[in-house]
Structures are given as structure tokens and as C-alpha cells.
């Protein structure tokens, strides 16, 4: 049954005959009719770009429309699309149109990479033109059999013809009716025409129709679309693709279409729903006041509010939007979902003068023009010379003021009064920005970000932390403080929440849990030791707390690093006040007087007195008995002595020497090594060499200037074993957490060595303890060892992803890892780039197209392994073997590729499951250790 369609001036021709639709006349020939029942405003509002035609389907013989099982949801102030990540290239445009209700998502997803059908694009164009309310869904509408459109979209397509959005000659052409018109993917050139028609710029397109587009693939552009493409490019609505291509027949994605229409908003004068333009009148406490069209609106800001500028595609922070700047705010029920900074210029004017007096609601200022009166209210901000908020009554007479008055409402209200010169008296909280001990000044940063600087006077005790007095130089930037200012001068500073700070002194007393140190001014402080403080002693390998020397007059001079709880997390020995003698020779020990006489390596005699406080040991055993130790101090015995003046701090029978190998004399068969105290010692070749990962090592295998430990034979004259100390980086081959064992690959990767890690401390790069189960095969570790015995194991941080920035001059680069986080690196100790078996040593060899695995070796050199890549055509995925198969160009091509466990598959910034890859998809694969770690769908 035919019905009439009014206000249509088109001729429709199809295989059943001519159909003339002109004004209110009835159809001259009956065509198949479709019944479209009324659709509620809620469902209509949820339909735009909600997905393919499955959102509504005709599943009855009568053609009744029914809602799909999956509801469509529009973005609101609290709605964020989980698949549109921060930094996504079209993020700004998607959220802008979503908050205006022009585009919507589905179950919290936007699916930015999905293609858009022609019928969906038409509906979006009508919403962009604010014409969707003109559609008539209550009457039956008719279209030719060959012009197939999903039932829900039919009245919108009819409206599009009525409004000149669609050209019937083009759309009804025979070649255009061979498949479903509505469900056909919208091409880039077709969308360009739709966009320009929606803007009413068809005349401009006609004028530009004869000009080539200037794109490399201009020959592929349909002749009747060239003018529309030219106009879209000239208006800045559409851009070319890589290689100066337009790809006219390429499918348009949901992200692209949102971008096109978002940019087009700048070329029309329509006012969109929930969209407000004006000037920020206030911005505080999670609220944004907007002065718009003569009134002030208030919007709530929350964690999901998106902030952008009109001149950039990238997000900005709320801090970059200042009061009295121009913005566009989009959001329903006065909850801002989208805020766009349109003009960063502050809409204020400035006045200056000298403060005279204050009366209710009026501030009196003496200026060059006489006494001026400025009204103020509760919204006016009063600030002191450092930008700190003050009460109006605290301003002293004679203070110089700067007043800011807004210029956007016409009332020229005073919005801020700034004291530029005056007396400051206050107590405030903030953080230490910097300390200048020469100028005796501290810069404080307040909670609002304002920095203010004040000086202190010499000779007053101002500074404290955890109830202990500290010096100004001990204040660290970033420490939270409470400070009092009187007459512009610092009167007190109390550290309320510190950061790491350092102090210096000598160790006065030392226990397992505390350290007492004496400062240069003679005062002493006591601090708790952290659980595992780092100990640094020059020329000492893996020192421990027991290696530190405490004494009331001659303890180690140290620098202590304290954490925010004032616990000692690091002890670094700067110098020692003691005397140390290694491999000294006993001359005599007197059991009555307890005097020990010995000669050093230069034959010089020394005398020290031993007592019950002297640390004594022999053969690895510790004794407290002077009698037991004295019986072993016989003539010519080798001993290690530590003393302060004539007092013996420690006496130990020499069992080993620790130092650095400095020379090897192959003819004399002797070696020379430098002890920790700088003493040179010459001894015969060792009886055995112990090196990690090398069996049967000889002395010439040991490189010079490496730390070594010489274990002495029982006669103390010969070296039984020379252990080579050091650290190297290895790749883990296997791990057995049950037995606390690990094998690591040795040089060349063909051999491995097993490690027993039962008593070995395991840490990450930050020095935090880790478990063996946190490591896996393929990870790298820095191993510290004494001979073949591991002493420490530290995991090495590795970052895999795409290089996004390279500054070869500055020695820096950035990698966007496979979680989407940007990781900056500095190649301060050098760089090695491994690409296809070739090693280079310059960052200029990296490009932003490279996928890499970056880590530092044991010496701090940056190691960058560039992943190899292959461009292939996808065939299928084998779930049983976790492999993908690709199509082969020749019979010899490798076509099976194993996937890494966490392979990153994506198209643009949209992450894809492997099952979404379709046959004949063009893909780029990136490989690490023979496994595919990334797949880019083209």
C-alpha cells in the first residue's frame, strides 16, 4: 500500500518503474512499503553511532522495529569510554561530541576503530544539524526495493533527502543499488560530501570541483567528489594520510567521523545541547563558575572531567585553565564533562595605588588620580606580597596594592587585591622549595603553588625536625614544613613531613639498631638504623655495619642519609681517623703489660696496647680472651691491626687480603695488589684461581685493576686461592624456586652456570627485597660475586615498547611501553644499540618507528635491542599452539609465528584480541627472541 510523503522534490527510478514524489501528491506506482513505528526519544537519543544495524532489527513479518538486547548508552559527566585511552588521537573529539549527545557508546565502549555505515553517518549528520527532531516516525514511509536501508534508519534517510544532505541522482544510481545502501561502509570521499552538505557549503564544493585535490592518489577520487574533498581540506575538516594520500574509498572509522564533525562545529552557528560558552568567573573547591549571556552558571568538576584547548588535540590539566579566561563547557545538569579553553587571555584590567583605609564593602586607595573607592565582596581574593591569602583587615596603611577588575561582565568587579609592598606577619604551611645558606633565605611553596622567599637572622635557633634541632643546610627541597614569619623575617621552621636529608659527623657509638654521631659543632644526635641501611666504605667490597668503626674520639667520619622518619638508610664513610695495618708482622706480645709490638710492610715498628674492648679473631673465630689471643701472637705471625693512637681497636690473625690486582710478573711469578689502606703487597702466584663461570682459570685470565680476595695458606706466606670479585650482568636461563637455585647464561649464551641463592640477598633496581618467584627465564640480573660464590643479586628493569622521542644531543629517549605508559631514559654512561646483529653506539641510530627492549648493563651502559619486524597478510590463528599463520608469497616463506604470552595487538591506540584479526588483514609483526611481541593491524 502506498502512502504520501510530503515536501520531497526528487525523482526516483528503479527496476519496477518510475516513481515520482512531488509535494503532497500520492505515489503514482505502488512500491513495497515499510512500517516504522514511533521510537521513543530515549531510544532515538541512544542510537547515533551506537554500532552496526544490529541495534535495531526487523524480525517480524510486519516489519515492526524492536530494540536489541544490548542497550546503547550515551556519555555523561561521569561516563568515560574505557577503550578511548588518554592520549588517543581522537580523544578530544569523541568526548566533545559524546557530551553533546551527537555520538554515543555501547556498554562503556566507543569502539573507535569500527567502521561506520552510510545510514549511521546520515543519522549523525542530522544530529550535527540539530534536525533529528524533524523526522516523522509515525507514518509509513516508502523506498524502492533496491534502495535497502535498515527499518530504523528509513525516516532519517528520507529526512536527509528532504534536507539536501543526500543527492538522489548519485545515491539512486544503478551501480549504487547492488548491495544494501544503508549498511554499506561509508567511504572517506562520501563522508566528505555529506559533511560539506551538512555545513551548507555545496556552492564552495561546486566551485572547487574542477581543481585536483593535490593528493598522490587523486586519480582514485570520484569526479563528483573532488570538490567536496577540496572544500573539506580547505576548511581544515579532513587531512591526508601517510604518503600524501587521501584514500578516497577507504572506510571511515567511528573515531574519524567524530573528528570530522567536531572540527565542523567551528564553521556553523548552531547552539548545541548542554553546551555553554563564556568566561570563567571562579574556579575553586571543585566548582567552575561560568559567566555566559549575562548570568553566571556553576558546574561541578570531577575526576572524569576532560580538559582540552581549542588549538590542540591533547589533554591539558585543570591547572592550565585559569580564572577569567574564555572556555566552552559541556555537561548536563551543571556537571561539567568537557571543558575546552578557547582563549587563554585573562579578561581583567589592572589598577594600582596605596592603601588608605577599609570601610564595609569598600577599599580606599590613593592613586595618581586622587582617592579611589573600589567595592569588593566575599568573592574578592586578598593576597599578601607572596600570594598567600589574607584577611582584608590585615593590610597595613601605606601598603602598595595592585587591584584586578574583570572586564567581561560590564560591572568591572574587583576580583583580586594584591599587596605588592608591605609587612608580613603570619604562620603558614608549605614545602621547602630551596635553601640559600649564603643569602640566609628559604623559598617556601604554599599549597596553592605560590612561592615566597624570606630570610632568617644569624644566631637564632629556628629549625627543628622530629623534636631535634637541625641546621638550615640540612633542610631538603620538598620537605613539608610549618613556618612563622614576623616583620618579614623567619622566626621558626618546623619540619612536619620530611624527605631524605643528609648529615655529617663521626660515629660516636654504634649498636645493631642505633647510631650516635657527633657533629662539627660538638653536638651529638642519635638515630635509628633502617632495616637494611646501605653501607659504603671506599675500597671495601660488600661492606656491612660491622665494618664501621665507632669511637668517642676517633670514629669514622661519615655522611648519613636520613629518610622522612629520620631513620638512617645509608652510611657513607668519608674518611677514617684510625690507622690500619694489613699483613703486619708480630715482633712481640707482652702478656703482663698487654703491649703488642709489630712492624708494618715497610719495616717500621709500632706498639699498641690491647684490652678487653679490642676486637680479636683468629682463623675466622672471634675471642674475647686476651690470654687465648696472646698465645697466638708469636714472632713472625702475620696480623691485621686497627688502632687509634696507641689503643688497639682490633687485632686479627691474617687469613686473607682484600684489594685490587695491580700487576702480574710472569717471569718472577709474582703478583701485586693494592690493599684497602693503599698499601702495596707483593706475593707469589696463587695456588688456585677462582672466577665465576670459568673453570681451570690461570692468573693471566684475571684482568688488572679488578677487586680480588687472596685467601692465605696456613703458613700465611702463600696464597692458596685468589678469588676474583666483581659484578656482571647475566640472562636467567632457568629458575627452581623450590631449591633456591638459578642457572644463568654465560658469555656467548651457549653455556650456563648454576647458582645457589639460599643466603644471597635479592633486590630490585630500587634496592627493595624481592622473592625468587618474582623472576623468570629471560630476565636479566646483576650478580655480585666473590670468586664463584654469589654475594648479591639485583633484578634489572627492562622496558619494551615503541620509541616515541629521541634527543641524541641530550642523550635521552622515551619508550611508550605496552601498557601505554611513557618511560624516559638517559644514556649517561653510554649506549649500545643492537639491530639485526649489528652494534652501534649512537642514539642517532634510533627512530620513532622502532620497537625496542631497553635496559642498563652492570656498568650503567644503556643496552637497546631493536625488535625485527615482518609485514605479512594474516591467514588464521591456531589457539592450540598459540600461533598465527600468514599467507606465503613463496613456498619457502616462514608462515607460522609463535606469540609471546602478553603479545600487544592493536590498530592505532585500540587494543584488539587476536580473534578479531580477519583473513587478508595486513599486519606488521615485531619479534623479540623469536616470539611475536606486537602486532599492528593496518
UniProtKB/TrEMBL annotation:
**A Pfam family of this chain:** SLH
| Domain of life the protein comes from | Bacteria
Q: Where are the transmembrane segments?
A: 34-57
Coiled-coil region(s): none
Q: Where is the SLH domain?
A: 77-139, 212-275
Please report the organism this UniProt entry assigns to the protein: Paenibacillus rhizoplanae
UniProt keywords, alphabetically: Membrane, Transmembrane, Transmembrane helix
Q: What is this protein called?
A: S-layer homology domain-containing protein
